[in-house]
Amino acid sequence: MLAHEIRARVARGEVSPLEVAQAYLKRVQELDPSLGAFLSLNERLLQEAEGVDPRLPLAGLVVAVKDNIATRGLRTTAGSRLLENFVPPYEATAVARLRALGALVLGKTNLDEFGMGSSTEHSAFFPTKNPFDPHRVPGGSSGGSAAALAADLAPLALGSDTGGSVRQPAAFCGVYGLKPTYGRVSRFGLIAYASSLDQIGPMARSVRDLALLMDAVAGPDPLDATSLDLPPRFQEALEGPLPPLRLGVVREALAGNSPGVERALEEALEVFRGLGLSLREVSWPSLPQALAAYYILAPAEASSNLARYDGTLYGVRAEGEEVEGVRQATRARFGLEVKRRVLVGTFVLSSGYYEAYYGRAQAFRRRLKAEARALFQEVDLLLLPTTPHPAFPFGARRDPLSMYREDLYTVGANLAGLPALSFPAGFEGHLPVGLQLLAPWGEDERLLRAALAFEEATDRAFLRAPLGEAF
Ligand code: GLN
Question: Residue 431's beta-bridge partner residues?
Answer without folding.
Answer: 428
